[in-house]
Backbone:
């Protein structure tokens, strides 16, 4: 594989708030370089927008749909560095789908990792007013405009809708390849074809999970009687369900790592109800999270939306720690019931409390083995290399090489 493919361009538009996608890009870059590939990175950062003039910000409307700067810079890089594959992670807002056309015009395959539901939903979440919503899939993108679904802003929602509308009309999404993180995501992505127009070729869609570095071996020592939540403090992540579940828990501790829009509510609730066993740790370093995972009886994922593929679940399995998660979407599919964790109904503090109180003992070595089978970096590399080779062969075949 190394002899046939050596030069890869990773493309990523960083959001203003760092997230899991940034970690995935860094992990894949390191993994590819460890296997002898030359990796280039084309990046933009949405922080740049703060320095834009008012006129430039008005132009961002068009730049988000097609950025000539991205097109010129990427095309020049592809030709100069003789790139074999363009692997895109995020294009919003500054890179735009123009990166695909830079690759296509150079005869180079473009692969898009699907981290969220943005190709289906302008808000990228399939959530509206705190509930799962598939209106845009079933009735069209105008539903998002009416609901101001992206950040509650009509203007930003309209831009997101127009990006999808324009590139669906141009057939852009039929011209590239996709990596979905789970089978659930693949099935959901292909629902884009159900309204009569083939937007994505099913044979262009592959499934390859994320991975994390294994770190220390699974902890075999007795765990502390503590439970861990790591993530954004947001209603849609189930944070209210979690803290409401924490009553009559005796000495069981709940450690909450993260911040977010529901943080003030959580603090007020805990103070009002005197929940001293619940500790808000705020933003915690990655190293500290790893330590807490190895010490805790379980990670709790009470999410109320489909999720993408939470990296924290992979890290929990690497630590040999079971997961108590919502019985929906990707969290449900990632938990092997009774072996790597248990699932409960989303939005039910009662079921969550019962699951915590009756949590059986799990075998850390078995959970670690599950990690090694499904999320090991070396196996992940083999899958990624195979996908790259397939898309190169398909592209060359179409060009008659």
Residues:
């Amino acid at each position: 594989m190394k002899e046939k493919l050596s030069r890869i361009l990773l493309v990523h538009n960083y959001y203003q708030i760092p997230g899991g996608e940034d970690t995935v890009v860094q992990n894949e870059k390191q993994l590819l370089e460890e296997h002898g590939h030359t990796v280039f990175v084309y990046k933009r950062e949405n922080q740049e927008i703060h320095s834009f003039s008012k006129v430039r910000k008005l132009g961002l409307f068009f730049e988000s749909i097609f950025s000539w700067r991205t097109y010129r810079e990427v095309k020049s890089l592809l030709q100069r560095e003789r790139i074999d594959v363009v692997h895109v992670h995020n294009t919003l807002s500054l890179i735009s789908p123009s990166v695909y056309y830079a690759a296509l015009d150079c005869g180079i395959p473009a692969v898009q990792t699907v981290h969220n539901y943005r190709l289906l939903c302008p808000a990228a979440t399939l959530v509206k007013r705190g509930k799962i919503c598939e209106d845009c899939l079933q009735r069209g993108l105008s539903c998002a405009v009416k609901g101001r679904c992206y950040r509650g802003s009509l203007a930003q929602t309209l831009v997101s809708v127009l990006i999808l509308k324009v590139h669906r009309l141009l057939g852009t999404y039929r011209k590239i390849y996709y990596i979905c993180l789970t089978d659930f995501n693949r099935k959901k992505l292909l629902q884009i074809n159900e309204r009569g127009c083939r937007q994505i070729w099913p044979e262009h869609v592959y499934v390859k999970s994320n991975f994390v570095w294994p770190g220390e071996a699974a902890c075999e020592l007795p765990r502390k009687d503590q439970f861990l939540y790591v993530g954004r403090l947001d209603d849609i992540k189930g944070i209210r369900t979690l803290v409401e579940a924490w009553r009559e828990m005796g000495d069981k501790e709940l450690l909450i790592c993260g911040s977010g829009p529901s943080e003030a509510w959580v603090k007020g609730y805990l103070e009002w109800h005197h929940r001293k066993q619940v500790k808000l740790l705020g933003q915690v370093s990655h190293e500290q999270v790893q330590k807490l995972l190895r010490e805790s009886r379980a990670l709790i994922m009470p999410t109320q939306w489909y999720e993408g593929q939470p990296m924290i679940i992979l890290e929990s399995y690497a630590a040999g720690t079971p997961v108590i998660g919502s019985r929906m979407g990707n969290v449900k599919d990632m938990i092997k019931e009774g072996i790597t964790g248990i699932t409960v109904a989303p939005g039910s503090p009662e079921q969550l409390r019962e699951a915590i109180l009756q949590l059986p003992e799990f075998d850390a070595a078995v959970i670690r083995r599950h990690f090694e089978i499904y999320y090991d970096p070396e196996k992940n590399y083999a899958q990624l290399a195979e996908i790259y080779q397939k898309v190169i062969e398909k592209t060359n075949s179409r060009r008659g090489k």
Q: What stands out?
A: The first strand starts at residue 7 and ends at 14. Residues 377-398 form the longest helix (22 residues). The CA atoms of residues 83 and 381 lie 19 Å apart.
